[in-house]
Amino acid sequence: MEGMTTVPDASPMPAALRQAAKAAKGFMPPEEGLALYRTAAAVAVPSLAEGFGLVAAEAQACGAAVIAANASALPEAVGEAGMLVDPHDADGWTAALRELLDDRESNARYRARALQRWAPVLPQRTTEGFLAALDRTVDDGA
After folding, report:
1. What is the CATH number of domain 41-139?
2. Would you give the DSSP letter of residue 67?
3. Which residue in 20, 60, 94, 121 has its CB near the most CB atoms, within 10 A?
């Protein structure tokens, strides 16, 4: 089967899903993981305890529609640019996923909001800010 990969238990798996599984295990270069965010129909982050919400923030910065748990740091990381769901509400997660998978207009709205939310801190600006802070540190003799 073209585009399919066999996993160790011999069950077929789409190549994109196999790639996502590798990313989850940390076997993928960062640029490939970011490409997954860019092409994902949706990114779900059902975490109960997040230090910052980096997965949700990275996904949004790549233009992904994000559904996140309304727990820990995720509401602040996602803001109104993503959907927030009670982490214990299976029906809520199902409804949110269905909305983003079935309603192209809703999905497009969340993608646009995500990019708008993170545009001020996208890589070029973040790099410039880091270099400026480094210059200030060196100039201060630290």
Report:
1. 3.40.50.2000
2. E
3. 60
CA–CA dist 53, 111 (Å, integer)? 17
Q: Decide: pTM greater than 0.85.
A: no
Domain boundaries in the chain? 10-39, 41-139
Three-state secondary-structure class, residue 62: coil
Tell me how far apart the alpha carbons of residues 40 and 69 are, in angstroms, rounded to a whole number: 18
Distance CA 62, CA 15 (A): 21
| Selection from 80, 44, 79, 46 nearest residue 64 by Cα | 44
- Tally helices (H) and strands (E) across the chain: 7, 5
Q: For 3-43, give the secondary structure using H, E and C.
A: CEEECCCCCEEEHHHHHHHHHHCCCCCHHHHHHHHHHCCCE
Cβ-contact 63, 39 below 8 angstroms:
no
Give the pLDDT of residue 29: 77
pLDDT in tens, 15-59: 766 666 666 666 667 778 888 899 999 999 999 998 889 899 999
Tens digit of each residue's pLDDT (9 = 90 or more) over 77-127: 999 999 999 999 999 999 999 999 999 999 999 999 999 998 877 655 555
